């Protein structure tokens, strides 16, 4: 296990970290859930619903913090003006009250865009459609060119309290 020598916050740089980690997370997910990979190989049109499932399952940004502008009640907790609250996107995307079988990666999930990975409301990611398009095109090309992308090494995670991603993933490409 790799240790962090100090705790650093890694801001996303205009979607570069997030989209790259979504691609890697998709490869990891399809290898962990091999039946889903078989389903995709049999029907590549499932890329449409797989892309938002990758975004939900990987959740490239773990959380964001917000500051209360005024005293606000959240459930049974009173949050004073100036107080901070962490919005754990990764936890919300695994909420069994909101998502059926939330730990599973299901490429033909009903309501695939029902996730928190891109934020919500006025803080919704402005680049979310570009991220989805990049993932869609990348997976279309992967499925057109390769039979599979096999994970052959242990995924190495980035040491970050914000970015939920990878520093290294060794794969083998199997041509058609």
3D architecture notes:
With 176 residues, this protein is α+β, with helices and mostly antiparallel strands. The protein has one domain (16-61, 92-175): Cytochrome P450 (Cytochrome p450, Orthogonal Bundle). Helix content is 34%, strand content 18%. It has helices at 16-32, 34-42, 47-58, 89-92, 128-145; strands spanning 63-67, 72-74, 77-79, 84-88, 146-151, 156-157, 166-168, 171-175. The radius of gyration is 18 Å and the shape is elongated.
| Percent range for β-strand residues | 15-25%
Assign the CATH topology. Answer: Cytochrome p450
Number of domains: 1
Q: What is the topology, as strand order, of the major beta sheet? A: 1-4
- Helix count? 5
């Amino acid at each position: 296990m790799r240790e962090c020598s100090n705790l650093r916050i890694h801001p996303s740089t205009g979607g570069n970290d997030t989209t790259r980690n979504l691609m890697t997370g998709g490869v990891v997910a399809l290898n962990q859930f091999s039946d889903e990979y078989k389903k995709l190989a049999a029907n590549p049109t499932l890329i449409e619903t797989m892309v938002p499932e990758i975004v939900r399952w990987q959740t490239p940004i773990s959380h964001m913090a917000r500051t209360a502008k005024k005293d606000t009640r959240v459930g049974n907790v009173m949050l004073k003006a100036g107080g901070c609250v962490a919005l754990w996107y990764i936890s919300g995307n695994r909420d069994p009250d909101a998502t059926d079988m939330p730990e599973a990666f299901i490429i033909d999930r009903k309501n695939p865009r029902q996730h928190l990975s891109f934020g919500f409301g006025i803080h919704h990611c402005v680049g979310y459609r570009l991220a989805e398009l990049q993932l869609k095109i990348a997976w279309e090309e992967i499925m057109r060119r390769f039979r599979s992308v096999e994970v052959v090494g242990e995924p190495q995670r980035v040491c970050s309290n914000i970015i939920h991603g990878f520093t290294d993933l060794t794969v083998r490409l199997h041509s058609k």
